[in-house]
Design brief:
about 150 residues; mainly alpha; 6 helices
């Protein structure tokens, strides 16, 4: 009898953990999507660091991940064929955004430093401080890494 009760309690705690984790991630995605307060702005800056102008894709992904955890009560397999295709699609979009950004920047002025990653880092911190000349940050650091690897 005690063994059965302990098993039910463990199952209940595990389900509650998944639901609370999903609820927390759902709240974080809503705060980020609405840019509410310092936390929302900070998370937007964090997501913009990685995906640049496409930061909303990360917010939507977090929202879908939270819903999956809440309804299925298990962690999803992150390396399915379909998700790998989504990752490649997002990577290619961020890469193309970064190519467009640097093409536009090259028309306006010549670069002092020819490192794509350092220029992206500099653009990102200019935008965080509010000193940026342009609002576009391309594909963020993921786009910068892809552009640095494929541009020769």
């Amino acid at each position: 009898m005690a063994k059965r009760r302990r098993k039910k309690q463990q199952k209940w705690k595990k389900q509650l953990t998944y639901e609370l984790s999903g609820l927390f991630l759902l709240i974080i995605s809503f705060i980020t999507f609405a840019k509410l307060g310092i936390v929302g702005e900070g998370l937007v800056h964090l997501f913009r660091f990685f995906l640049g102008s496409w930061h909303i894709v990360l917010t939507i992904g977090l929202f879908i991940f939270a819903l999956y955890i809440m309804f299925k009560r298990k962690l999803p397999n992150m390396w399915t064929r379909r998700l790998i295709g989504v990752y490649l699609l997002v990577f290619s979009i961020t890469l193309l955004s970064h190519v467009k950004l640097f093409r536009d920047l090259a028309e306006k002025a010549d670069f002092l430093d020819h490192s794509i990653i350092r220029n992206t880092w500099y653009l990102f911190w200019q935008q965080v401080r509010g000193e940026a000349v342009i609002d576009d940050i391309g594909g963020g650091m993921i786009g910068a890494l892809g552009y640095a690897l494929t541009h020769f």
